Amino acid sequence: MAPKWLKKATFYQVYPQSFYDSNGDGIGDIKGVIAKLDYIKNLGISAIWFNPWYESPFRDAGYDIADFYQVAKRYGSNADAKKLFAEAHKRGIKIVLDLVIGHTSIDCKWFKESEKVERNAYSDYYVWSPLAYYRGSGKGDDYFISGWGPRGAFLANYYAVQPALNFGYAKIEHPWELRYDDPRCRATKEEMINVMRFWMDMGADGFRVDMASSVIKRDEGKKKTIAFWREVRKIFDRDYPENVLISEWFDPATSIKAGFHIDFCYNNFWRAGYRPEDPRIKWPQMAMAETDFTDPVPAITPAFELIQKTQKKGYIGFYSGNHDAARLRYYGSEANTIVKLAMLFTLPGTPFLYYGDEIGMRYRENLTPKEGGERRTGSRTPMQWDNHLANAGFSTAKKEALYLPVDDAKNAPCVADALKGKNATYNAVTQLIALRKQHVALDNDAKVELVYLKHRKMPIAYTRSNGKETLLILLNSSKDKVAVTLRKLKSAKALLTCGVSLADGKFTLAPCSYGIFSL
Ligand code: GLC
Ligand code: CA
């Protein structure tokens, strides 16, 4: 059984270093988030996902953890974390942490012990090849960092500074590999279960699991990986039934089988691609972009099929953006972006709003990469609270001390203006979230059915229903005015519209418009 609150949950992703700096050192922190909880609550959010806040040398912005049991000094202390859990819960907000299950930093105590020749409790926490020059087979993610001290070479999971934790192999090919059911691999798993318990016992409401599919190596078909996670889910069901398990797997059909309540949808279906790291390649256009208009059919059909396949068993996490992808606003005008947000908040699944997307924060091109962020850096800049204050109110530090530069463009959006009603994106987002809360047909598990979807044409139309109530949603993300007559439609009552009108059964949609009707 999935926790009941997921039926209505809307998530907000906080990148802690960029959200709000409470002590003027230029870096966002936990006390800063506590100070902004009311802002988040007023958006209509039910849960926050935090990017990693653990002790780290930050060579991958905290996804390289040195101590899984300790909040990084720059974010505060474990006592602050506890305070945050309490303050969030007082407001009915859940806190979900990031669990980097697949690897640690080379600075982690476990790794420092493991690299010693003398046997100790951590010797098998990582995969070591005694061949000092070994670089792995190059197949899949099998890449080793060679020449690492007396133990030879170690298996890396992502960057070279992120040694893979050893959960074993589904299929053994080399003498140094352990089978997934080896008791030595069991010990690594127990440690991570311990980490989960540690934070949940303190007050955390679950985890977003980083690279969740990467735990067991050479696992074709992911059978052993699925079994690995099912066991974790059992622990949740028994001891933490109200807590959520979210995967970064990007394959909901598999991950939901593995016991995750939520998984993300890779292409996010209005995003034609995700994260090409080659700086010479322009980040892919949105499938629903207003310029360079591409076909909505191949973009939307697979996502709807995926919804049908996984609904009732789990939720798909559609998102406005995240710390790894270009911001939504990069792909279209303000009006076009709002149409995409209207879609995000009227689809089934658990919507994830990336901090700043509610005011239309922009992707910052050509920033100097920060902490291994590479091109992702442009989506990680400080939240713009108030453009009338220094550093847009993010921090009182000197400009040079800021974690990343604040968008200081004249027309950069900010929260202060939004709260005065001067930000169209914010207006739309708050209205959409409120509407979603009010209507059972918009519940995260309520049905969806396509009504109108045509090649190279707008609008896109679908219904949402739960048996008691049916809503019709129409979206036009193009620059053209379009019209559509939906047969069999007797009457429709407008609930929330922006540029859509209905007369004699014919809907007319202005460029970049959306409408939600009750049938
Ligand atoms: C995930 C994270 C990303 C990180 C990587 C390695 O994809 O979202 O930010 O760099 O895992 O941990
Ligand atoms: Ca700070």
Write the layout of secondary structure elements.
Blueprint: E1 11-14, H1 30-35, H2 37-43, E2 47-50, E3 54-55, E4 67-71, H3 78-90, E5 94-100, H4 109-114, E6 128-129, E7 143-145, E8 153-156, H5 183-202, E9 206-210, H6 223-239, E10 244-247, H7 252-255, E11 262-264, H8 296-310, E12 315-317, H9 334-344, E13 352-354, H10 415-419, H11 424-438, E14 447-452, E15 460-465, E16 470-476, E17 482-485, E18 493-503, E19 506-518
Parallel strand pairs: 1-2, 1-13, 2-5, 5-9, 9-10, 10-11, 11-12
Antiparallel strand pairs: 3-4, 6-8, 7-8, 14-15, 15-16, 16-19, 17-19, 18-19
Residues 60, 63, 100, 158, 210-211, 248, 323-324 line the site of alpha-D-glucopyranose.
Which characteristics define this entry?
single chain; 519 residues; alpha/beta; TIM Barrel; Oligo-1,6-glucosidase, domain 2; Immunoglobulin-like; 3 domains; 11 helices; globular; binds alpha-D-glucopyranose; binds calcium ion
